[in-house]
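## tool: complex_structure
## caller: assistant
## args:
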Amino acid sequence: MQNVLEMSGICKSFPGVRALHNVSFSLRKGEVHALMGENGAGKSTLIKVITGVYEKDAGQILVDGKAIHFRSPQDAQNFGVGAVYQEIMLCPNLTVAENLFIGRGQHALVNWKQMKEKAAQLLRSLDIPARPTQQLSSCSLAVQQMIAIARAIDMNCRILILDEPTSSLDEEEVQKLFRLMRELKARGVGIIFVTHFLDQVYEISDRITVLRNGEFIGEYEAASLPQFELVSKMMGKALDDVSQIKKEKSASIQRGVPVYEAVGLSSTAGIKPFDFTIHKGEVNGFIGLLGSGRSEAARAIYAADKVIGGEVKVNGKKVKIREPMHAMKLGIGYLPEDRKSDGIIADLSVRENIILALQVLKGFFKPFSRKQAEVFAEEYIKSLSIKTASTSTPVKSLSGGNQQKVIIARWLLTHPEYLILDEPTRGIDVGTKVEIQKLVLKLAREGVSITFISSEIEEMLRTCSRLIVMKDREIAGELSGENMTERDIMHVIAGGGTKS
Amino acid sequence: MEPMKTMKRREAISNSNLLLLIAAVIFVLMYGIAILCYPRSFFQYQTFFDLFSLNAALIIITLGETIVMIGGGIDISIGAVTGLVTMCCAVYLESGNGSIEGSILLALGIGIAFGLMQGFLIAYLEIQPFIITLAGMFLANGLLTTIHKDPLNVTMPHFVRLRDTVIVIPWLGTMNRLGNFIPLEVKPGAIVVVVLIIVLSVFLHWSRFGRNLYAVGGNSQSALMLGINVKRTKFISFVLCGLLSGIAGFVFIMTTGAGNVGNASGFEMKAIAGSIIGGTMLTGGVGNLIGSPIGALTLLTINELIRAAGINSNFQAIASGLLLCLFIVLQSSVLWLRRTGGFKLKGT
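## result:
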């Protein structure tokens, strides 16, 4: 079969980091080719080299057998290379229709009427719940992601790159995306697919290329590479048996006065009044579909949205939490869902990002000495095995999973009694995911209470001893012990009511 | 279906338009107060149109500043460039072999030259716009005093005729105190302003460049990924701004008829203030070319109002400062309420 894209000997370095070293990659016409690797393996860098965002240091790129050198994403786009990036690359201040068509028009004048009609048609054909004239920033993350995908698909490209397109989509939307991918495949489009969901890789991919530490590990037929082997190729070692984690859990709960207790809590984000309790050493979770209110519930606990009602007790004492700072002082930590906008401070160093929360607690007029900060940072870089060139590296140059670890380190440093983790594993690879899950259970054994939120049911089942199922912005039911299975959760979400 | 309804309400108006609405309301409010306090002077078409006639240069500069600010940049050289243009035109017209056409070309040429130079450094060499235009401001100021130090009145007959040209609109006149009817007189500069506002607004709304500019200002990284030529867009925005400074310079001298070292000094700050009152955000991506002139007019109305009240001119600056502060607070609280949903709650 014909190769639409062929890359060989690609090298790319950033100051202090060798991102890609002698990487090869080929893409056939009409295939879905999964690009796999851990965090920092170089997947995103390779993609940005293809689309002309980064200039390669060495190597060759052939498109349809001709040597090509893209200087900018515009170049690549004009040549028929469309891309959906991991971080949503759209303009929040423009309308949905503009985001779909801007940068693609060949005319110097904008035909608004035609653009709106075309946008409406495109949105309708892909079932995206957004209106063309709506400002993008008023759409949810998932809808924005779908819009980015719609844009790429509509470009009639020869090569389509999807970098973690499914991380904020729910199951139904993922299936919709897969149907589209199959259609495009039949039309002869070559698709590069990057994801951390192994099941999705096997569901849709024809071939798999594995990268590790910026190096090419191998190219395989998906059908002949068992999942277990893929994981070990990505990690360079045999993966710990994941099921082993399960046995360790749920022994750590210490009954008595709850660490945190709320009655009738509600916030301006539209969450209906709910009751919630967590004990020392307990791991529980909010589970539900996107938009069910699972994040809003967590944000209400941390007072990240304005709380408008309810009674809260921390360690049995009645308190009123008005703002995140107050929650922090009471020993509550919150790791936000959107790490790009709410979590990391991209230009600060790893060290500064790690000590940030503790520094806030201590007060800005009593800064930590450089030496002390260095000790803190080193400690957590080691214990969480954060991959960074040094403690002074800006956080933005780390990969997604490592950025997430930096934020976790930030909270661990404050020694919280109660930690809320909202989608801590979103957009990161299996290895780090398992590490984070293990860390959660380890912390629970040490007496920290944790609320865990994730889109992956399996992950929730593995870590949590109690699940609170959310639906339509209120609690639909609670599950624990024997009743906690995937089927029961679905049952509650589908409207079957509570069991225990 | 309640959530759908609120969604529709939010969709109905974009941030740019909301800020424009606020600017318009503030202006009407200010002018209303002025009319209530001094009905004799402010309740006349002449006073209103004089705001345009006498401040044409400032409003044109504000348009240029807004364009740059929408693209996420800032230009603080425009006042100095405008001043330089007035002086160059004055010297050229007084040299004996100058012509009006020549001076227009000279004005546009100087403006574009500054725009090209600054735009190139900012867009292609990626240097901070603040620093580059600060340097540009010093350069223009220096050139201005080097060319001619003393006030220079242009006496060329052709030019004097142009300076004294007024367009008479008889059906919009007013009765004076003695009961005589005085027709409305408008300076050509006001016409230039109105034409530029219309042309540029249409241009920003309907042209590819205009939409790209909003995208670049909103998020330049995303704009790059969406396949927009970010550098060229920024470059053009600065060239346009330079061109407008040139036009403003010519309109300035056409209105006052003299070159002077102090011409248009401090206009850049007034232009930034006017843009912001008019709903342009310093962070880029949000702004409106209808709003900015309204913002500039609001600022001018305040000044007129204070002058009419006969307050010491020191207080003028203080009052403008305080009012500017008040507007910005009002703007950001409306945006904040909108973001946190308070605005929505109030509405339903």
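## assistant note: Residues 2-347 of chain B form a domain with the ABC transporter involved in vitamin B12 uptake, BtuC fold (CATH 1.10.3470). Confidence is low (pLDDT under 50) at residues 1-11, 342-348 of chain B. Handing back to user.
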